[in-house]
Amino acid sequence: MPTLLDGLRILVLEDEFLIAMDVEQLCRDHGAGDVVIARDLTEVDGQEVATQFDAAIVDLMLGGASTLDFASGLRAAGVPFVFASGYSDADEIKASFPGVRLVGKPYSGEDLVQAVAAACGRASLG
């Protein structure tokens, strides 16, 4: 049976180590081929993301810096992504990024995986 994230290369922008580890394991459990964690925006080059990853999970704040510009770059490059955050101003996100899922923290793994799969055009198999 195919898994939701089968073979996908996923970038995880998350500065909380334990959460990042959980998300990585979650993605792998659902078949992701490669999971790369970046805890700081300086670790990722927006230009390279488009060629190296199939999807991204983006925390809205990374080390106190907003990731919205980075997310705009992902969108421009055509990389599907979801926001995962404890930050609650969903209206601003919906206005700036219509159609991009915002998975609130603390999130259930299932919600996050479904959101990423949906962003990549893979319908839920459940």
Identify the notable features of this structure and list them briefly.
single chain, 126 residues, alpha/beta, Rossmann fold, two-stranded antiparallel ribbon, 5 helices, globular
**Total domains:** 1
- Secondary structure tally, helices: 5
Along the chain, the helix and strand elements come as EHEHEEEHEHEH
Helix content: 25-40%
Radius of gyration based on Cα positions: 13 Å
Q: Could you name the CATH topology?
A: Rossmann fold
Major sheet: order of its strands?
2-1-3-6-7
CATH architectural grouping: 3-Layer(aba) Sandwich
What does this structure look like?
By secondary structure, this protein is of the alpha/beta class. The chain has a single domain, classed as Response regulator (Rossmann fold). It contains 5 helices and 7 strands; from the N terminus they run βαβαβββαβαβα. The chain has a 5-stranded parallel beta sheet, with helices on both faces. Helix 4 links the parallel strand 6 and strand 7. Helix 2 crosses helix 3. The longest helix has 13 residues. It is globular. The chain starts with 8 loop residues before the first strand and ends in a 7-residue tail after the last helix. The model has no long low-confidence stretch (mean pLDDT 88).
Q: Helices, strands, pairings?
A:
Blueprint: E1 9-13, H1 17-29, E2 34-38, H2 46-52, E3 55-58, E4 61-62, E5 65-66, H3 68-77, E6 81-85, H4 90-96, E7 102-104, H5 109-119
Parallel strand pairs: 1-2, 1-3, 3-6, 6-7
Antiparallel strand pairs: 4-5
Helix pairs in contact: 2-3
